[in-house]
Amino acid sequence: MQIPAFLLRKLYIKGSLENVEDGFSFKLKNSLSPGTTTAVAPIKVNGNEYPLDSTIIRSVDGEVKGSEISEDNSFPIKVGVEIEIHIKGEALPEGEHTIDISLKTKEAGTLAFDVKDSI
Predict the structure, then answer these.
(1) Tell me, what's the pLDDT at 1?
(2) In three state form, how does the secondary structure of the chain look?
(3) How far is CA 56 from CA 3, 34, 40, 108, in A?
(4) Which of 48, 7, 44, 41 is closest to 26 using CA atoms?
(5) Mean per-residue pLDDT for 21-48?
(6) Three-class SS state of 39
(7) CA gap 98, 36 in Å, rounded
(8) Paired sense of beta strands 109-118 and 35-40, if any
(9) Would you say 57 and 5 are in contact if contact means Cβ atoms under 8 Å apart?
(10) φ/ψ of residue 63, rounded to 5
(11) Domain boundaries in the chain?
(12) Mean pLDDT (whole number) for 58-82
């Protein structure tokens, strides 16, 4: 079941992109249906790819590095629960940024979309 990118973009919480002490973060909130993440592709911002070892995914269910998510170590995506994606590295410059997000779920296969947000 392929979910259109325009629907997936609604998962992104507009205005959540911010610089933090050791990098930057943004938030997603599932409003579609429950899912189970089994793989995450490296996050890209303005075409720059960030390593999965530097990507921390947090929710009320805990925290995991992007590189640790697998079929055997899946991450739940519950409806109505915020998920913070924290990228350790350089802070982003002020202005608009394009964020590419891609993940694989048990229920819907690969979900890939991009969003624009500003710092």
Answers:
(1) 59
(2) CCCCHHHHHHHECCCCCEEECCEEEEEEEECCCCEEEEEECCCEECCEECCHHHEEEEECCEEEEHHHCCCCCCEEECECCEEEEEEECCCCCCCEEEEEEEEEECCCEEEEEEEEEEC
(3) 25, 20, 11, 23
(4) 44
(5) 95
(6) strand
(7) 25
(8) unpaired
(9) no
(10) -140, 140
(11) 5-118
(12) 93
Give the separation between CA 117 and CA 96, rounded to whole angstroms.
6
> Residue 33 — pLDDT band, cuts 50, 70, 90?
confident
Structure tokens at 2: 């392929």
Tokens 């409003």 correspond to what residue? 31
93 torsion bin: left (phi>0), alpha (psi -120 to 50), beta (else): beta
Looking at domain 5-118, which CATH architecture does it have?
Sandwich (2.60)
* Burial class of residue 84 in the structure, from the number of CB atoms within 10 Å of its CB (0-12 exposed, 13-18 middle, 19+ buried): middle
pTM above 0.90, yes or no: yes
Mean pLDDT of 90-98: 97
